[in-house]
Amino acid sequence: MKNNKVALITGITGQDGAYLAEFLLKKGYTVHGLKRRSSLFNTDRIDHLYQDPHAKDQKLFLHYGDLTDSLNITRIIQETQPDEIYNLAAMSHVQVSFDTPEYTANADGTGTLRVLEAIRLLGLTEKTRIYQASTSELYGNSLISGNKIPGAQQPGSQNSASQQSESQPLEAMLNEQSPFYPRSPYAVAKLYAYWITVNYREAYKMFACNGILFNHESPIRGETFVTRKITRAVAKIALGMQDKLYMGNLSARRDWGHAKDYIRAMWLVLQHDTPDDYVIATGTTTTVRDFITKAFAEVGLTVGFTGTGANEKGTIIASEKTEYNHLIHQEVVAIDPRYFRPTEVELLIGDATKARTVLNWIPEYDLDGLVKDMVKSDFRLMQKEKFLKENGFNTLNYFE
């Protein structure tokens, strides 16, 4: 049977939007995507999906828009009449949100309100289901200082569907009943978005849901996000294109999953009979330091860390490949204090028992599979870049 559903994805050119668009198109959806105007092409992640606007039987349509423009949002929703809206657009870089707090509040917080209010004003509350991209940053430092979280599943209990990292003793894991304690302008803006979504669901009987997604990465993650910054640097160091990776807090622990698993959860949330909010997480936490170690291991290099705080450094101590032996004893990781956040979130780990039980969501990737996927992709990308440079072609410089 033909699928006649229509979906609108805000932030379609981002990591999640691109994977979700591909996922929905394979299911037969007609997909409309919101993208911001730019003087440069910013559709790299969806170029393989894009169709010539003159082609027949199109299933993917792009619209210029911005969550800070209520008239624009309302018009696009009115024209597309979506069955499902996935509100993924956001100023999503935590560190940058400290530099642009007002814009972050406008786009990430009030922007969600604009989408919800457009649905209400257009009389689409019974037709349109809304997925709001929430974030584990809402929890902030809830798990620090020995705080036990009321209602949170205790690691190791028989009822938990998640497994914590054996090397990380924890008081609790974060679930849908855990308290929020946002620690950045980004997280505070997302807190408003979370509660306004709940409010519109209860006040206007909307099918509006929050997906509290913990960190999710992929080979198409933005280059300035820490995991992608790491995997790009590892590839460039191995290929002799970069000497050192500069980082901030190496002891921060995150629950990292693969974006391909998480966009599938988004879709499942809107297919359920009842609107609700769900934590999406792997239940395993890892330090930034260990992520770096795993990434170097993918190219056959062993890195050891010495020192503490701003004086910590990482040095290559062994190589599985003779072509990298010259890197042994080279310092490849250093701390740059400018990358420390004004208020840091030290630990995040989620309990997705509800999503696993109610939605039957099971992630297909573990952390090692995620790291392997990202390093392999970036290694190939840097091999291409190195070839171009060695043959006299100009390439773009990416410095963060």
Structure description:
By secondary structure, this protein is an alpha/beta fold. It has a domain at 6-222 and 256-284 and 347-366: NAD(P)-binding Rossmann-like Domain (Rossmann fold). The chain has helices at residues 15-26, 70-80, 94-99, 101-121, 185-204, 226-238, 259-271, 288-297, 353-358, 367-390, and strands at residues 6-10, 30-35, 60-64, 84-87, 129-135, 207-213, 216-217, 245-247, 253-254, 257-258, 278-280, 286-287, 301-306, 313-319, 331-335. A seven-stranded parallel beta sheet has the order 3-2-1-4-5-6-11, sandwiched between helices. It has a four-stranded mixed beta sheet with strand order 8-15-14-13. It has a two-stranded parallel sheet with strand order 7-10. The longest helix has 24 residues, at 367-390. The model is unreliable at 145-171 (pLDDT under 50).
CATH classification class of the domain at 6-222 and 256-284 and 347-366:
Alpha Beta
Shape: globular
Just name the CATH architecture of the domain at 6-222 and 256-284 and 347-366: 3-Layer(aba) Sandwich
Approximately what portion of the residues adopt beta-strand conformation? 15-25%
| Helix fraction by DSSP (H/I, runs of at least 4) | 25-40%
Strand order of the largest sheet: 3-2-1-4-5-6-11
